[in-house]
Amino acid sequence: MQNPILKLWLAFCTLLPLGIFLLIGASYKPPESLFYWSWIPSLDINFSLRLDGLSVLFASLISGVGFLIQLYAVAYMKPYKGRAAFHLYLTLFMLAMLGLVLVDNLLLLFVFWELTTLTSYLLIGFNHEKEISRKNALQAMLVTGSGGLAMLAGLIMLGEMAGTYSISAIITQGASLAQHSWFTPSLLLILLGAFTKSAQFPFHFWLPGAMAAPTPVSAYLHSSTMVKAGIYLLARMLPVYGDSALWFTLLCSAGAFTALWCAIQAYRQTDLKLMLAFSTNVILGQLVMLIGIGSSYAVTAALLLIAAHSFYKAGLFMVVGNIDKATGTREYHELAGLRAVLTISFIAALVTAASKAGLPPSFGFLSKEYLYKAGLEFGWLLSGSMLLANAIMVALGLLIIIKPFLSPHHEKAAPMKAIEHNQLLWIPPIVLALLSVVVPVALLNWYQGLVIDPAAAVMLPDTQVKTVKLWEGFNLPLLLSALTLILGIVLYVVYPRLKPRLDQLMSGLPSGSGVYQCILNTVIKVANWQTRVLQHGHLTQYSLQFFIVLLAFLGTALWKIVLWQVHPLPSIELDLYYYDVILAAFLVIAAFVVVKARTLLLAVAALGTIGFLTTMVFLVYSAPDVAKTQLLVETLMVVFIAIVLRHLSAVNSVPKHSTSRRLVHACVAIGIGVSISLALWIITATPMNQEISEFYAQTSVSGGKGRNIVNVILVDFRAFDTLGEAVVVVIAGLAAVAVMAGKRINKLVSESTRENR
């Protein structure tokens, strides 16, 4: 009997995406609906949501398909431990993707972008007891996370170029930004983020690796969510970068090559799930190519393909999950006769595979027709590569249907068990299969008016898209579709003979995953070498390294100022009082005592004297808050070190160093002293920029509700910084307590063991 709380939780996670889907439908008023909350106006960060044709397309797929995936996962994940956590991760993943496609601010878009990376890491690595799951989850996070950081730099450049981080405001500026010097760097950085997220070559390898996740994750991730994030970003940025020749070249070449290369890789697989995974790369490549083309036909084809792929790919993944549940395997050669125990799943697979292959009157056929129309506008090269990739997709559809379901069961085939008594395992794929036919046959005009026209208006503001028709008579795209089917059937027939030859031919080529692992191993080796060199455990060497680096930076800056006259040197004005001279003299004497002391206690006392004298300097120059802090810190330091030295009486004398080492220390000390003195001399003689201090003085009361400016800065203006410092101190304290407790426990265990002996 299930826990009632678990039942309520599963019901909530299942109904939430359905509620969001209905809310989006109720809130959307073409051409767009805006929802705006001022969040951090000083940084131009506003939590604004924008419902237009493009965001509604993605958001409805994320929530609608998400509802069916959650429904399917309720049944599929029933035997798994931690299924409540799984549904939580899946829900967070959905919300992150919804935020990504709905927000109208570049910085918030990046936040949700990285949230999808983190939540997908949790989902891919859900079976964390398996090494392959942990490895592939880390691989996906490192690849997409690294691309996301590059994209952040590009988004910041774009926001600074436009003078705003509002996406809708940036789009209105369009191609006028092309004259800016940051236009090309921002384009390249944004493409890097999109290519890693949407698994374009050479970053394609992480997506098949994500198959280590449970099947509901694969169905969701591949059909409607994470891998489409890069496609959404490219579509959204088309009005800004679409007129650039670099945009066209990079997207068309990367998309076409990714589609063709991954189609060949999919053809080589024997695991049905991997076949589907690599075929996702194919569709992503085609979508990138279509956005790169950016014509009316290309945008229409992309908008059709996004929905068509979501329907048939999610359905096929769920069918493969049912095959796995019924037989315990997904290997093509071990499957046969499944129609007898998976009758309804077979019907869903038949329809969705037909859409994948592009058979009329499916959604896949319609999108493929317009894909060919877009490709023919730019010659036969793009169309030819797409024809071959689509032919392989036809072969894959036949491979998924014929042998596993239609061939007779035999002794060597995996044993089968009936699982379709659980309706939740077949209702979602059947619904998606019906949508793959119903939308193009009965709802095409509705889809055109509600999705294609508004979304195309966002991507191509100055272009009117043509009316989409399921049948436009006999034409060249239809001929290419027929040729695709014929070639796909041929590839299916020769699969047993062609696949081994392809494997042999491509065995010597490096794999993307292998190159990634090689790079990761190199990084780890460099990190280990760096750790051995720098983290050697000698505190004096740490200090020496720090001061040498500091001296290098100071010396470089001062070298430019003194020799290159980058900054005019101030004149020397001696305006001293007797107490300045006295304090300086005592500081020099105390420093001399520290250097010449023969006992550690005397050196600590002299060092504390320097701290107390520094406190006097702060008091003289009207900084009582800093002086109080300095006094407390110096007092505690002297007391603590004296207590430590009490327990280290055997090593109370100052260690003697070699003459060469002392000479190095002396040179570094003199260099630091001279450099900082020169730097302070130049800084104090330069007129101070009062803008920052005036800002804090003017806003400390109105913004921070406090008259102590230093406290307001720490608690309000730099609250996160202060919180971070406090957290670091707390974590260090907890770690110290844990270490001491661990040592105490080990000691007790050792004593107990000796007593037992």
Mean pLDDT: 86
Total DSSP helices = 29
Structural class: mainly alpha
Radius of gyration, in Å, reads: 33 Å
Range of strand content: under 5%
Percentage of residues assigned to helices: over 70%
Rough shape? elongated
Main beta sheet: 2 strands, antiparallel
Total beta strands: 2
Strand order of the largest sheet: 1-2
Distance between the termini: 49 Å
Low-confidence stretches: none
Total domain modules = 3
Which features would summarize this protein structure in a list?
757 residues; mainly alpha; 29 helices; 2 strands; elongated
Q: How would you sum up this structure in a few lines?
A:
The chain is an all-alpha fold. Helices cover 74% and strands 2% of the residues.
Layout: helices, strands, pairs:
Blueprint: H1 4-27, E1 32-40, E2 45-52, H2 53-76, H3 83-102, H4 106-124, H5 131-162, H6 167-173, H7 183-197, H8 206-209, H9 215-223, H10 226-241, H11 245-267, H12 272-293, H13 296-327, H14 343-357, H15 363-376, H16 380-406, H17 427-442, H18 444-459, H19 476-493, H20 495-506, H21 512-534, H22 539-563, H23 578-596, H24 600-620, H25 624-646, H26 659-685, H27 691-699, H28 709-717, H29 719-756
Antiparallel strand pairs: 1-2
Helix pairs in contact: 1-2, 1-3, 2-3, 2-9, 2-13, 2-17, 2-18, 3-4, 4-5, 5-7, 6-10, 7-10, 9-13, 10-12, 11-12, 11-16, 12-13, 12-16, 13-14, 13-15, 13-17, 13-18, 14-16, 14-17, 15-16, 15-19, 16-19, 22-26, 23-24, 24-25, 28-29
Please describe what this structure looks like.
- This protein is mostly helical and 757 residues long.
- It has three domains: 1-242, no CATH class; 244-493, no CATH class; 538-699, no CATH class.
- The chain is built from 29 helices and two strands.
- It has helices at residues 4-27, 53-76, 83-102, 106-124, 131-162, 167-173, 183-197, 206-209, 215-223, 226-241, 245-267, 272-293, 296-327, 343-357, 363-376, 380-406, 427-442, 444-459, 476-493, 495-506, 512-534, 539-563, 578-596, 600-620, 624-646, 659-685, 691-699, 709-717, 719-756, and strands spanning 32-40, 45-52.
- Strands 1-2 form a two-stranded antiparallel sheet.
- The two termini are 49 Å apart.
